[in-house]
Amino acid sequence: MLEPHLKKPSNKGLPFAPEIMILVTLRYYATGSFQKLDGDVMNICQQSVSRIITTVSNSIALQMKMFVKFPSTVEDINQVKQKFFEVAQFPGVIRCIDCTHIKIRSPGGMSSEVYRNRKGFFSINVQAVTRPNLEFFDLVARWPGSTHDSFIYNSSSVKQSLNIGDLQGQGMLLGDSGYAVSSVCLTPFLSPNSIGQEMYNNYHIVTNLGFETIKTAD
What we know:
With about 220 residues, this protein is an alpha/beta fold. It has helices at about 5, 20-30, 35-40, 45-60, 65, 75-90, 150-155, 155-165, 195-205, 210-215, and strands at about 95-105, 125-130, 135-145, 170-175, 185. About 45% of the residues lie in helices and about 15% in strands.
């Protein structure tokens, strides 16, 4: 899948084999170690390791739409609903939504402070829509850390699709209290005042735990 994007048409400059490029990149992803250490293991200079990681990462990103997508058939939609239901018997759920902050260095410049989030560090606020087995349906990774979750959602193609009816009738979207409740997005009660509302909140939280697991892994 990645080879056409990694393999050079000639041997000019002694290019690295695609398999080596992928292994170097996977090692960097898995260990988070400095690029120089990765290069030392395979006798590759740091500059080459940096180029390899960039090239492979871009090549992987090009494949995103093959895997990160909403279910398109009735059978797939019903299967997702059933998997969510099996978590905490919450009916009609087909997706969960939330944002998570990916830490970055200060980008510098006049607008760098817009990347500083409420926790005080610089980040990209990434919106993810997930399914019950910890896979992604949709990702939005272009907003600075100071951007509110609800603004990202309201500006996203997911919200636009709901507005025009592309995703209506498929099922419910679960979000936390940072989102506005609607006919397609269900959020917890802020101050539950009945047993039913408390049960609803409990089932909502348990069903949404899959996404929290992803955020913890971050």
